[in-house]
Amino acid sequence: MSEKKNERVGVYVCHCGSNIAGVVDVVDVAKWAQEKLGPQGVIIAREYKFMCSSLGQELIQKDIKELGLTRIVVAACSPHLHEKTFRTAAKNAGLNPYLVELASIREQVSWVHTDKAVATAKSKAVVSGAVSRVIENVALDEIKVPINPNTLIVGGGIAGIQSALEIANAGFHVYLVEREPSIGGHMAQFDKTFPTLDCSACILTPRMVEAGTHPNITLLTWSEVVKVTGFVGNFNVTIKKKARFVNEELCTGCGICQEKCPKKVIDEVYEAGLGYRKAVYTPFAQAVPNFPVMDKENCTYFIKGTCKACEKFCPTGAIDFKQEDQLINIDVGNIVLATGYDLFDARRVSNYGYGRLPNVFTSLEFERLSNAAGPTSGNIVLRDGKTAPKSVGIIHCVGSRDKNFNNYCSVICCMQGLKFAHLVHERTGATVYNFYIDMRTAYKAYDEFYQRVLEEGTLFVRGKVAEVTNAARYESEKGKLVIQVEDTLVGKQRRIPVDMVILSSGLQPRHDAKEVGKLFGISCSMDGWFTEKHPKLDPVATMTEGIYIVGCAQGPKDIPSSVAQGAAASARVLDKILQKEVALEPIKASVDQEMCSGCRICNGLCPFNAITFLEDRMVTEINPALCQGCGTCVAACPAGAISGTGFSNEQIIAQIDGLLLRNLEIQEAVPA
Amino acid sequence: MNKYLFYPGCSMESSGRAYGDSIRAIVEPLDLSFEEIDDWNCCGATEYLGINLIPAYSLIARNLALAAKQMNGTHTVVAPCSACYLNLAKADYYMQERPSLGVKVNEALAAGDLQYKPGTLDVRHLIDILVYDVGLEKIRSKVVRPLHGLKVVPYMGCMLPRPDYQHRWSDHEHPTELDDLLRALGADVIDYPLTSECCGGHMTQIGPETAFELIRRLVADADERGAHLMATVCPMCQMNIDAYQNEMNHYFGTDYHMPVLFFTQLMGLAFGSQPEELGIGVELVSSRNAMANIGVEVPVTQEPAAPRKKDEGLPMPRRWTKHEGKEAVK
Amino acid sequence: MTDKIFEPTIIGFTCNWCSYRASDLAGTARMKYAPNVRLIRMMCSGRLDPTFVLRALSGGADGVMITGCHPGECHYIEQNYKALRRFLLLRRVLAGLGIEPERVKLVWASAAEGARFASETTAFVEEIRKLGPLNWGKPVAQLENLQEEISKLEEVSA
Predict the structure, then answer these.
(1) A:B CB pairs within 8 Å
(2) How many CB pairs under 8 A join A and C?
(3) What fold does the segment set C10-155 form as a domain?
(4) I need a labelling partner for A178 at 20 to 30 A (CA). Which of A299, A463, C131, C155 fits?
């Protein structure tokens, strides 16, 4: 243990109303701290109802000024809540903020223990540990690094586009990277959007065009991020721009290549497997950018070496079979992830027969059917492409709210199911049944939409559908799809024959969400959605500074919420950019080169490449800009040559001794 | 040579004799060695478990104990009857899941100088080892008389896909193992939605009306889909649909004539055995007409060439079968 | 003395990103667990110097609980693997010193696993209770006969 330091410590124990005081005897703890820890350096110990209030903070500030305190311990709630509050208060009173320590006696004591005596004793130990530790604290200054004003947005759906436009309109540059040939995302596939029944493409395409032509937005479609290094304000990103085999400088978007291409394949992405596209294609007519893309796996030239019809007919000679993937390297200050969702694979619910029974459709398939630009020109027909259904069953919660598949609610499927019901009524006059568990129509004008659909004559059956089958039991069922369901409001099993079944499939995280998360250094929740910093108060930030998550990448949500999140992330990003520099926590490791023996044990330990070995001097050096402060090298050094600020060996050892009340023993054991 | 311990079950020698005969016929071509468990006893079928669990499981576990003793380079027990298979699998599973049951059953077994440690044996159904161990490729290679033109409905029955403790089956509502196997024999397999629906089981004795309705549903649907015959994996199902079809017809005033055979009989036929060797002809609802479809050399039906004009219908999503290794997009 | 139930003292090391947040979550959700653990917050489980564990045990702790992010989810990418390596070696060292290696436990808990944090803590306390007090760091002065023993050993014949 280091030599006795002469610090003047102030201890403040918070009641937090009755949250702490109801279980812990805070008065006793304060008294004990003053008495028992006095010899260690505690000059004053107070208790107060709400330390985080302005009055509470003023208490501390007054004591700093009047009593000349050099260290502060606040025994209250978790440091994750108010560490910044008290550090700022100390700073404003002239004390270095890193000389303040928080001891949590709420989340870790009063809220989780019931025996008052035990909780009070534990609180004393916790305070003792904090006092011992804070004495070893050193004054530190925040490190300021400049922020690169460029921003990277990954994902060109509605959330990503919104985010991009907000930042670009503020005058800063944005790189918008999209994996598919065009931006637009899932919203481009829809027909109408609830509850207004706006045509989806009509409200989306103006935004797409704005993003495509904005001087501050660089659109990188048919591209993927492959590497990310750096930290907030200073990210370096490598993007792979996949070969389109079309020269963007020469292409005019005339579409002749598409017309002339003889190879037709099923469009699994945009048409949801219901329509066709050519081997060289733009996904839809309003694609932004309008440059086509060649599907190497299906193109006759790449398979057999023949054809080349597109090249022959292209008026500007824009087809370039020799084009290669490009690697682009950019520097950005902030990154927004707007990667969206995947649709739940309804084939997994085998009792609904999707994939086996022709007239069972998923929600995206139905959107394409109903869309005027879709494979059936907006006619709602059965799988034969001709017959209009006379009765339709819409099943909610397919793959959602289901322990066998995804336990969560996918938020939009009820409204989607109602929307489908309305469209089917409008276009075909068929009888429509909606099978639901609960009706989740929460936001503005949503419940009114539900009532409207009710009044239109849709039949609602409350029950989870057991089976969709084509095994007819009675004459009336022959040639139809039979929905077997328990109608819970009536209390009977029902078999309802329909012509067509639409499955309101749930939303899932992208199949590669975990890999993408690892690439950017953020984590995914148990369900696979990206993890936000705080589910209530900080839904767009992540634990990694400078990386934001918006839209369905963060969790299933509707379009207005995605747009709002996109704009929210932009506000955060602009806030950082406008401050011109970001303050980094000064928790860094550094090597005392006098003590370094050049054993290089630490060299292989840093995932951020902050540790380098200086060959000429045979010692190791740590780059404070790259160091993230994990402390692994500090722990590894056998000579103790590496020290870590903020969590130094002296601090932690002092805290261990303090928690075990050894500081008292040692004081008491002073020989007479 | 794939070695297995074999548990025939009571029906193999009586009502399901055709099953036993046909199994013997296919064992050699597929290089299988079935060693019958010495001194095996009845598995207790379904009723005993409803009366008293401990003696019921002890009865079943005796077979497992004997098999474990006999274990000879293999620890897999194969049962061709679905009920026997399920009973053996359940006994092994529950003795592990519920240690007190395991202890009591072993106490009972001890009276006969036997012991069984749950988890020692792997209990599998015949069709499971044919599809997953022997493999469809090998089966296909042994087919000398493909069953082209024979429209078969694959009926798995309810006991195989559920409950699936060891996750052996491709799906719990629409398993495809039997479909794939019959396809490998060259038959025209009909997509049958009722493949895992109940055949009535012992309701034929206890509550015939219920059983007849269940049998009617199966037969009516197969008939509607134009099947020549049904193929099954369980002697109970075969007996119900076969032996009770006449009464069912009486009861409903229908006139169905749907033969139902064991899948191994079809395998034997495809491998070149004679119908007599396989017990074909022994069934009550005669399969003569159905077999006439292939008894004479039927030329291989050729797929018509795809028309130049594309059909206007909308494309179907890809089929997903666990067996063929295509994993559904999660 | 014999009637009093032994209450172990355990020091817990948590990482700022996952396991400390898990303990926060346990608190917010008011999940109750055994009060014998006193927590120390570090930035990462990789910061754990094995000497801290020895310091804790020799200082009066009966057990040490080390917690961190699940492998693959470390905020600093892979530093929890280093913690794992050190933990395994540390157990061997403790065994060599004659201390039950079970007195040190490693628990991975993600920020969402408040319940797990609470249940693992309570379970560990019971395990240590069964092992009994460690009694390592008792100051020499308190063991009366030892003073005499040492004197005898140090005696050098004239």
Answers:
(1) 65
(2) 131
(3) Rossmann fold (3.40.50)
(4) A299
Q: What are phi and psi of B110, to 5 degrees?
A: -60, -30
Pairwise CB contact (< 8 Å): C79 & A607: yes
Domain extents in chain C: 10-155
Residue-averaged pLDDT of chain B? 88
Q: Please answer whether residues A551 and A163 qualify as being in contact, where contact means their C-beta atoms are separated by less than 8 angstroms.
A: no
pLDDT of residue A45: 93
Looking at every residue in chain A, the average pLDDT score rounds to 92
Do C121 and C34 meet the contact criterion of CB atoms below 8 Å apart? Answer: yes
**Contact call for residues A645 and A636 (beta carbons, < 8 A):** no
Nearest CA in chain A to C70: A523
Question: Residues 6 or more apart from A218 whose CB is under 8 A from it?
Answer: A173, A174, A175, A176
Contact B224 A354 (CB under 8 A): no
Supply the pLDDT for residue B274.
84
Measured distance CA(C34)–CA(C32) in Å, rounded: 7
Would the pLDDT of C120 be above 80?
Answer: yes
Residue A667, pLDDT score: 56
Query: Where do the DSSP E strands lie in B66-201?
Result: 76-79, 122-125, 151-155, 188-189
Is the separation of the CB atoms in A73 and A10 below 8 Å? Answer: yes
Q: Is C145 exposed, middle or buried (0-12, 13-18, 19+ CB in 10 A)?
A: exposed
Predicted structure pTM score: 0.81
- The 10s digit of each residue's pLDDT in A308-346 is 999 999 999 999 999 999 999 999 999 999 999 999 999
Contacts of B312 in chain A (CB under 8 A): 384-386
Q: Which of residues 102-131 of C touch A (CB under 8 A)?
A: 110-112, 118
Residue to substitute from C25, C47, C52, C53, interface A, most A β-carbons within 10 A: C47
Contact A355 B217 (CB under 8 A): no
A350 to B314: CB separation less than 8 angstroms, yes or no: no
Which member of A274, A275, A350 has the closest CB to residue B171?
Answer: A350
Cβ-proximal residues to A212 (8 Å cutoff; 6+ apart), any chain:
A183, A219, A288, A289
- Residue B118 tokens read as 């749950």
Which residue blocks in B144-185 are alpha helix, DSSP H? 177-184
- pLDDT tens digits for range B58-106: 999 999 999 999 887 788 999 999 999 999 999 999 999 999 999 999 9
Check CB contact under 8 Å for A356 and B330. Answer: no
Domains of chain A and CATH, by start: 9-142+650-669 (3.40.50), 243-324 (3.30.70), 343-508 (3.50.50.60), 589-644 (3.30.70.20)
Of C38, C44, C61, which has the smallest distance from its Cβ to A630's Cβ? C44
Amino acid identity of residue A56, one-letter, is G
How do residues C71-91 score in pLDDT, each as one tens digit? Answer: 877 888 788 888 999 999 999
With touching defined as 3 or more inter-chain CB pairs under 8 Å, the answer for chains C and A is: yes
* Range A254-257 contact pairs with CB under 8 angstroms and sequence separation of 24 or more: A254/A315, A255/A282, A255/A292, A256/A310, A256/A313, A256/A314, A256/A315, A257/A292, A257/A309, A257/A310, A257/A313, A257/A314, A257/A319
Q: Which residues of chain A have pLDDT under 70?
A: 1-4, 665-672
First to last CA, chain C: 45
Q: Amino acid identity, residue A362? A: T
Write the CB contacts of A507 (distance below 8 Å, at least 6 apart in sequence): A341, A342, A343, A344, A400, A410, A411, A412, A552, A556
Give dist(CA A384, CA A375) in Å, integer. 12
Using CA atoms, how far apart are residues A557 and A344, in angstroms rounded to an integer? 15
User: Which of C9, C31, C43, C90 best tests the A interface by mutation, with the highest count of A CBs <10 A?
Assistant: C43
Q: How many CB atoms lie within 10 A of CB A546?
A: 26
| Structural element, H or E, at residue B105 | helix B99-110
Contacts of A608 in chain C (CB under 8 A): 76-77
Cross-strand bridge partners of residue B188? B151
